[in-house]
Amino acid sequence: MKKWIVKRTCFVLFFLTVLLCGILSGCRKNGTHQEEMVHSQKKIVSTVFPPYEWVREITGNKAEEYDMTLLLDSGVDFHSYQPTTEDIAKISVCDLFIYVGGESDEWVEEVLKGAKNKDMHVLNLLDALGGQAKEEEVIEGMEEESKEHEHEEEGPRMDEHIWLSLKNAQTLTRAIKQELQNMDSENAQVYEENYQNYERKLQELDEKYKEVVNSGKRRVVLFGDRFPFRYLVDDYELDYYAAFPGCSAETEASFETIAFLSGKLEELELPSVFVIERWDTKVAQTVIDNTRSKDQKILYIDSLQSVTSKDLEEGYTYLSAMEKNLEVLKQALN
Hints:
Elements: H1 2-40, E1 42-46, H2 49-59, E2 66-70, H3 85-93, E3 96-99, H4 108-113, E4 121-124, H5 125-129, H6 166-183, H7 188-214, E5 220-227, H8 230-235, E6 239-245, H9 255-267, E7 272-275, H10 282-289, E8 297-300, H11 309-313, H12 318-333
Helix pairs in contact: 2-6, 6-7, 7-12, 9-10
């Protein structure tokens, strides 16, 4: 009886040992497989949110074959962004690097010089936009930049907020699609189909913007803030007034600027003042307080330049943000 118990115990221990070895072997194989997948993924790095989103849309069900990184995912304004050591390391080994290409990206040239991947594809979005790119403009009533914020520049200062035009978005997604096809010709047709589907969505939203503008009671918007929406207002032939240019580092408006904007609110009977930062309504409120009625609303419109990882987790997309902006614009024009 004792011998039978000993034999049975030995058999059980043997069986458990074999089973455990099988499990561990499977884990090692699975871990190795996952490591191989990560290693084989092509790496794409985008500085700002819109091209990051466009890459995801165009890759579609092939997205798992790519390791995608959004550098500005903490809500920082891209005008003041400087890459960390970790950011530079990611750029250095990536297969495709996408950046805006304006004054805020002056750091890019030096980073690319030291890149380890000499076969890297690089997409400068302002270059891809070509003749559609616009210079930043300073119009009547805007606060002039102070000497401490002046820049020594060669040539014009380009307006970097190129994604705030649905027409530009169509041009830029086409450029991204072409880069992906160059990197992965086997899936070129997949990228073409995904691009065409997304382009239709952009065109449909563009038509909605035209309808809202054409049916509006007025064609003027006023910003008590920086103004990054030149591409958008030009697309739909809207006029605008603002406290500061889109790339301005200024935050304090002079008495003259406040008085000018308050006067325009009253003269044009505008019902609202736009801001691009929910937490900073000081200038907008001061403009309103200097009107006779003091009853204009402050409206928030999204410039899509301070997107966070939390926003992405909650389902934030380029199209959803632009649709919300359309609703806000509709409110301001009626």
